[in-house]
């Protein structure tokens, strides 16, 4: 074979092999695209009606459609950018989580008060951290509850832990500033309320927590947690009278606490009444059903409380020293 013929054969073979490689690559791209499309369509949220979802998801029979069910965790994450009957619940607390985490940076580096010491920044940041935990756990619960009953229970427990964290953070900050000039009382109440609420944060992570045998201890703990949120303030009032509270015309502290309590109360009423979906079942499946409104009230309460804590802080830091008798 001449050199020219050999070169030409080699070229032909290379072209042939090149074509084969191109074909294989083409197949890979086509198959990947088809598989990806099928996968995306699978992930593209089949939504179900109330009667077609597993029993554990049938929590509110006034919400008739828009249910996800038996999704993988990946599909749940994809469902973040789709519209279903949990989207509002996920995004209300998801957005609040992002806002609270951002505010932690403001607590440390922002202009929260000209006299703010590092300890003041830590107290405010701890409240914001407790809020961030609450909103994160709630977001994860609403995002993943449709995976399985096991996931529903596990993330539901985290949701409960978050509530105790927020109660603790909220009450601790107010207690710290009300008894700012009386460290003995402040230490007593803070240790007690942090201890009880930590039981509430970690308790739900144990299996025994949800059992019937534990019911009365659970109830006792949540009642104690509620009592401890108000008891230090009551104690302070009994010791010092209402005149020793931050003046409402100058500081948003007491009006803030009242507004926060009002938001929670209104939220609970809407939540329990299942309003407005009970008036028109199926009409509020995606937007503005009671759980979403409850979430919005919780967010409003938490933001109002953050303003109230800054007002309590300003009230104390505006005074040069503690009064002699407290
Ligand atoms: Zn919720």
Automatic annotation (TrEMBL):
Membrane topology: Multi-pass membrane protein
Name of the protein described by the UniProt record: Adiponectin receptor protein 1
Keyword terms, alphabetized: Membrane, Metal-binding, Receptor, Transmembrane, Transmembrane helix, Zinc
GO biological process: intracellular zinc ion homeostasis
Keyword Magnesium among record annotations: no
InterPro entries, sorted: AdipoR/HlyIII-related
Superkingdom classification of source: Eukaryota
Family: Belongs to the ADIPOR family.
GO terms of molecular function: metal ion binding; signaling receptor activity
Compartment(s) of residence: Membrane
């Amino acid at each position: 074979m001449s050199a020219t013929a050999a070169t030409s054969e080699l070229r032909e073979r290379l072209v042939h092999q090149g074509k084969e490689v191109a074909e294989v690559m083409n197949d890979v791209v086509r198959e990947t695209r088809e598989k990806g499309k099928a996968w995306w369509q699978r992930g593209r949220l089949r939504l179900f009606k109330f009667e077609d979802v597993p029993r554990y998801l049938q929590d509110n029979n006034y919400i008739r459609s828009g249910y996800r069910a038996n999704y993988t965790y990946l599909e749940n994450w994809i469902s973040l950018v789709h519209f279903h009957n949990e989207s509002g619940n996920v995004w209300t607390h998801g957005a609040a989580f992002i806002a609270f985490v951002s505010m932690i940076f403001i607590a440390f580096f922002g202009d929260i008060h000209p006299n703010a010491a590092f300890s003041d920044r830590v107290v405010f940041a701890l409240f914001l951290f407790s809020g961030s935990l609450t909103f994160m756990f709630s977001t994860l619960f609403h995002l993943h509850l449709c995976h399985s009953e096991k996931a529903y229970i596990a993330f539901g427990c985290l949701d409960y832990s978050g509530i105790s964290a927020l109660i603790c953070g909220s009450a601790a900050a107010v207690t710290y500033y009300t008894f700012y000039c009386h460290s003995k009382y402040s230490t007593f109440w803070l240790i007690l309320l942090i201890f009880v609420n930590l039981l509430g944060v970690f308790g739900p992570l144990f299996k025994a927590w949800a059992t019937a045998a534990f019911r009365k201890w659970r109830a006792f703990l949540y009642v104690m947690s509620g009592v401890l949120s108000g008891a230090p303030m009551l104690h302070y009032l009994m010791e010092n009278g209402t005149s020793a509270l931050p003046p409402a015309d100058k500081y948003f502290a007491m009006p803030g606490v009242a507004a926060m309590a009002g938001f929670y109360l209104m939220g609970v009423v809407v939540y329990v009444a299942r309003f407005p979906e009970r008036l028109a079942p199926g009409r509020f499946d995606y937007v503005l059903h009671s759980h979403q409104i409850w979430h919005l009230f919780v967010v409003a309460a938490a933001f109002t409380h953050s303003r109230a804590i800054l007002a309590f802080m300003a009230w104390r830091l505006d005074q040069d020293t503690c009064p002699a008798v407290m």
